Amino acid sequence: MKMNRRDFLKSSAITLGAAAVAGEASIAQKGPVAHAARPAPQYEIYSLKYAGPFTSSVAMVFWNQEWDKTIDRNYYLWAIKGKDGFIIVDTGTSLSDNAKRKLKGYVNPVDALARIGANGSNVKHVVITHIHFDHVGGMEMFPQAFPQAKFYVQKKEFDFWIKDPIAKRFPFRGITDTLANGIVEDMEGTDPLQLISGDQVILPGIELLLTPGHTPGLQSVLVNTAKGKAVVASDCAHIARSFRDDNPSCLIFDMAAWLTSYDKLRSKAALDLIFPGHDVKLLTDYPKVAEDVTRLA
């Protein structure tokens, strides 16, 4: 069959068009592979004791149980190390507050962090899990020690401790640091203070998790590590046993919310990778890397 020049050109154009469409489809199919999301970076987690040990009834850290038995606890902050520096979790107790409380074995938290090389040039993120004196007090020193850092606080936590008059009454006033709270309050509306509402990824492989109960807006930190997902839970539990046995400490803001927070954290990480706030085993059961510093994951 003869084909004139015009029919030949039309036929060629159709063939070329089909080939082009097929090529685009092929590229589109390869696209997700070529542009696949990079794996989340992996971090190391360090626990730093800055005060302790302190002895109390087991019932203080394990609600209404074993009043006749005693247990030791330490005060910690945590450092999450990545290739670009450190994310610090909590700030410890202030120099001023320690002068009144006279904590056993107290070390300036800034000096404790220096033991693993955390300093003003490589700390750009500080997570405040909650506004109790032993977790927020270091704000007396931290903005000066770490001038490049952003400070992350849950808005619910900020609004209660900083704005709500109830927080100024005795039962609450005794477990916070008014000087440190004033520094946090003065930072409101500035870029260094990041008020978070709920769960939020702040860096690849680092997610803040709202875990209320101990306080109205306590937050934990979900971290991607070589061992898998791990959680710096701070005082979502004072001891690891609480996560296993479903029983928090006696310092309760909302018991129902606290138990729900346990469910949430146990869905995010294995029990042996959820690290509590005051357990002496953080110091005794993990590899030591510096004075009173251990590597958790």
Account of the 3D structure:
The chain is of the alpha/beta class. The protein has 2 domains: 1-36; 44-295, Metallo-beta-lactamase, Chain A (4-Layer Sandwich). The chain contains 12 helices and 13 strands. The strands form 2 sheets. An 8-stranded mixed sheet has the order 6-5-4-3-2-1-13-12. A 5-stranded mixed sheet has the order 7-8-9-10-11, with helices on one face. Residues 1-35 have low confidence and may be disordered.
Tag the structure with descriptive keywords.
297 residues; alpha/beta; Metallo-beta-lactamase, Chain A; 2 domains; eight-stranded mixed sheet; 13 strands; 34% helix
SSE diagram, text form:
Blueprint: H1 5-34, E1 44-57, H2 58-61, E2 70-82, E3 85-89, H3 95-101, H4 109-114, E4 123-127, H5 133-136, H6 142-145, E5 150-154, H7 155-163, H8 170-173, H9 178-186, E6 193-196, E7 200-203, E8 206-210, E9 219-225, E10 228-234, H10 241-245, H11 255-268, E11 274-276, H12 281-284, E12 288-290, E13 293-295
Parallel strand pairs: 3-4, 4-5, 5-6, 10-11
Antiparallel strand pairs: 1-2, 1-13, 2-3, 7-8, 8-9, 9-10, 12-13
